[in-house]
Amino acid sequence: MRGLITVGAALAGALGGIALGTSPARADGPGAIALSRFEPTPAGDPLFGVPSPFVGGHLVPRAVVVLDHAEDPLSISDGDASSDDRVVVGSQSLLHLGGSLSLWDRLLVSASLPLALAQSGDGPAAAAGGGEPAAPSSPALGDLRLGARIRLLGGERDGLQIGAGAMLHVPTGSSDAYVGEGAVRVTPQLVLGGRTARLVWSVAGGAVMRGSENPSTLAYGGGAAALLWDERLEVGPELRAETMLQGSSLSLTARERVAVEQGTSAELLLGARVRPLPGLVVGAAAGPGLGEAIGTPSFRAVGMVAWAPPAPPPERAESPDPDEDGVSGAADVCPYTYGPKSADARRNGCPVEDQDEDGVADPDDRCPEAAAGGGGGDPARPGCPADQDGDGLPDALDLCPAEKGEAAGGAARPGCPAAPQKPADQDGDGLLDDADACPRERGPASDDAAARGCPARVRVQGEEVVLLSPVVFRVLKNDPAPIDPKSEAVLAEVRDVIEQHPEWTRIEVQAHTDDAGNARFNETLSTARAEAVRRWLVGKGIAAERLVAKGYGSSRPIADNKSAAGREKNRRVQLLVLEKK
Fold it and tell me: What is the rounded CA–CA span in Å between residue 70 and residue 49?
């Protein structure tokens, strides 16, 4: 039997000073007992009964409903081995309604109210002289628990976090139903815990100081859970215990007191929690009681459902120079577009808009150094001459736009001379193939042989378009993946390279992140970024059916995420040729 109390034959005499006549032992307002030693953790904590230093976000509300059932939490014996123990409380089922609110990513305030749904048992035996036992009653309201906790050290996903707090039990419960103590209880606590990619753990300890005549206790425990299924499943054990500081008489209800010895109540639970939807948590746990102290059940089962949304990522402060062009604040006429300093206050911080003065702004000009000419140029390539070499084939379809050829030009080389002179210049950038490091992609001449004739920011390596300059995304509240205008130059070169390879019929635009943050969040963010690049390329003339966007989150790192340099390399955009004709 669990929760066994031995009552000596001299009990009535020992308590005679507070007894009246021959009725059960009574005290003048000593309080009662909240029998259950299971205290559900605040809404949002990762374990069932061991609190965590976790505090996530600011003004983030969370709620939880917990149902726990204990078998045989309290029996008493008169010390006679020949007589049966009296089952005071044979079973107890409690419903806990809880909520919490996180503040400033540091402070958590919480509340929990228990309700006894069902209880069974005989109540304590009457003292000498007879009388009816006080059987447990239900439904009955328990003591309201209010809590506050502050995280002193560590962040939400750090391996070591330290927190401190306190719980206050307000005597709102029934003093005759084993769910209320009739007096205030205060429990200061110290909590340690942490979280890694595969494990969450916590240990906690504190003193339960009672305003009633019942003795104070030390409450402590620890637990851990493995994180599985992309952190949507938690499975692990936890052990909780409460030790009475000294032997004493103990109030079971407002009318009955019994003598108890100093002892420890302990329980072991094995539980699992699953998040089937973002914010929704469903869990269950069960395990045995350990020892014979009061309140220790032979078995306890726990079920819970909670609404516990994750903390939103912190908002980044707006930079005084968001385009990083060296012109800050109000002086930058184009604060989100990279541009040089200018003596003209009307153009300070803005890019040169139209180098070839053809009426097409450079960000939209496919040929910023070649005027479109009369007739508006090629409508498929804004800012470009319709037919630079005058061979009757639009430049968009001409593989040799600077070299006059036949309109048919052979199926493999439309717009190129039928019999090109050798050595050839396939990309028409003025550099012969023998001296061109990138013979299929146009680029300027260079003293560097490895870069001669290549685009400044892009290379084609096998089936991949490699970006030598990163695509930068700004952080805006209403747009998860806005492309920074200063990245338009590298994207313009990507667009040109794709146009120079009409044989590429399907290209995958990939986006990758580092491992900071939740894996699902990273996958969503990378997908949005890949789609943003795809939309930009389609908006600049690339056929939509040639491009497919794919976000890989942090699943394909190319460098070590433990360093800032490695994480920066992992935050990247790649393009991979999937199909050719």
Answer: 14
Q: What is the CATH number of the domain that holds 576?
A: 3.30.1330.60
* pLDDT, tens digit (0-9, with 9 covering 90-100), for 418-472: 654 556 778 777 788 778 788 888 888 887 877 887 888 888 888 899 888 899 8
* d(C-alpha 558, C-alpha 567), whole Å: 9
pLDDT at 122 over 70: yes
Q: Which residue has the higher pLDDT, 456 or 570?
A: 570
Percent of the chain whose predicted confidence (pLDDT) is above 90: 40
Q: In angstroms, rounded to a whole number, what is the distance separating the alpha carbons of residues 329 and 316? A: 17
Structural domain range at position 196: 4-307
- For the record, the structure tokens of 196 come out as 């890694």
Confirm whether 560 is domain-assigned. Answer: yes
What's the DSSP call for residue 483?
A: B
Domain edge (last residue) among 268, 285, 307 = 307
**In this structure, is residue 440 part of a structural domain?**
no
What span, in angstroms and rounded, lies between the C-alpha atoms of 114 and 100? 15
206-232 pLDDT tens trace: 999 988 878 889 999 999 999 999 889
Q: What is the CATH classification number for the domain harbouring 274?
A: 2.40.160.40
What b/e string do you get for 86-108 counting C-beta neighbours within 10 Å, with b at 16 or more?
Answer: bbbbbbbbbbbebbbbbeebebb
**Could you tell me where the DSSP H helices lie in 10-145?**
11-14
Based on the structure, what is the number of domains in the chain? 2
- Cα–Cα nearest to 258, from 15, 74, 84, 91: 15
End residue of a domain, out of 260, 278, 307: 307
In a domain, 126, yes or no: yes
Q: What is the pTM of this model?
A: 0.52
In Å, how far are 92, 226, 332 from 343, measured between CA atoms?
82, 62, 12
Tell me the C-alpha distance between 503 and 531, whole Å: 22
Does residue 562 fall inside a structural domain?
yes
- Preceding amide of 237 cis, omega within 30: no
Q: Which residues contact 196 (CB under 8 A, 6 or more apart)?
A: 159, 227
